[in-house]
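REQUEST FORM: STRUCTURE PREDICTION
Request ID: SP-0412
Submitted by: Lab K.M.
Chain count: 1
Length (residues): 79
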Amino acid sequence: MWKTRAYVRLKEGVLDAQGRAVEQVLKQEGYDISDVRIGKTIEFVTETKMEQDILREMGSKLLFNPLIETIEFSEDFLP
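STATUS: Completed
RESULT:
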């Protein structure tokens, strides 16, 4: 079995209101940080390793908006 993770993030230049809000709160608390970005992780398990073409197709149809987001996949074998 394989566990696949899809990491979805807003593209550079797209306003990340959640990231900005978190950044402001962390700065108010005294943390020296900048450029906070919020994303999401989607995990799923399959019987066999998925082809990159299938992952990209699935991602662009259902998991992210290619106009404003990017997606990266990682796969791990589950013993």
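NOTES: The mean pLDDT is 95.
Reviewed by: T.R.
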